[in-house]
Design goal:
By secondary structure, the protein is an alpha+beta fold. It contains four helices and 20 strands. The strands form two sheets. Strands 2-9-13-12-11-14 form a six-stranded antiparallel β-barrel. Strands 6-5-3-8 form a four-stranded antiparallel β-sheet, with no helix packed on it. Strand 16 and strand 17 form a beta hairpin. Helix 2 packs antiparallel against helix 3. The longest helix is centred in the first third of the chain and has 36 residues. The chain is elongated and about 145 Å long. 20% of the residues are buried.
Amino acid sequence: MNQMRPSRSRRLFTLPLIAPVIALMVAGCSAGETQTPPPPEVEVETVRAGAIDNVIEVPGRVQAVRTAEVRARVTGIVSRRLYEEGSDVRAGQPLFAIDPRELQASLSASLAQAQRAEATARNARQDVDRYRPLLTDQAISKQEYDAAVARLGQAEADVLQAKAQVETARLNLGYATVTAPISGRAGRAQVTEGALVSAGEGTLLTVIEQVNPVFVNFSQSSSEFLAIRRDMAAGKVTTPELGATRVELQLEDGTTFAQTGRLDFLDLAFDESTGAAALRAEFPNPGAMLLPGQFVRARVFAGRRNGAILVPQRAVQLSARGGGVMVVTADNKAEARPVKLGDLRGSEWVVLDGLKPGDRVIVNGLQKVQPGQPVRIAAPKPAPGQPAPAR
């Protein structure tokens, strides 16, 4: 047992050796706690200005280029429907048949009246021809001759009136077959066989809409219109002529309509109730892909915007107060910068205010920086196919 106990002199020798080691360890820990971490590394893009398309996005509705309401022009009973509902019809194609028997009888009566009027006129003409030489020989009075001439004039007027009635009766008989006034797509029939239609009330039979091409109607607020006028006056925006303004459509399912349209109408006055000006574009519509009343979003390419600034979408932070970016100052510190955003072009935002050419915007590493904190700018990445820069 005595052999396993260290001597007092050995314990005294060991303590002086351990104390310096503990002191060095404590000093090392203190030095590690006070050491400043290196600035975070970020990737930046230098802001440049250039010319881009001046695009205006507005909601719109599709409208048929031509719409015709097919109404009854004579009174009668519908005997047949001669077209298929929802089908394409051509101008002049029969759509409905109205019972023509009463109209045929009216035409026959008008023809008989015209024959009577012509017979009366022939008799009156013969009287005038007989009275003319008798008046020269003073066998009849001037008054009798004048009366015969008056009867001839009245008879000839009756002939003209009778012929007009015949023409009217013939037209009405023709209206018994209701035809399409324009080519287009005929809608649902508003009447069925056996229905009584009236010329006086103008009974609606069906509607035909021409849907190739089509119109798209939309509007622009007065504030947006005035902003474009100011930008044009300042030389920031150059606009083409009305008929050269290109328009694209985005459908409700998010796809883009294959055909491109042209702006063809701009109202020169603002609507008092909405404060907006009406615009209209015309689009080819093969296959009737667009239907009247359909909701679309129109992208109007209203010229070119000069001095525009684009930044990558990943560099922009969105909040309830708007957009913001992080820029690197001249002394390599991060600075939060609020910006006014325009529209989104693919993967880039159009910045209307808040940045100027030459600003360095952080595009990668945003999660590692705080405003006012120094940053370290990473070396630019080589373009695809280029060797990496030597370190």
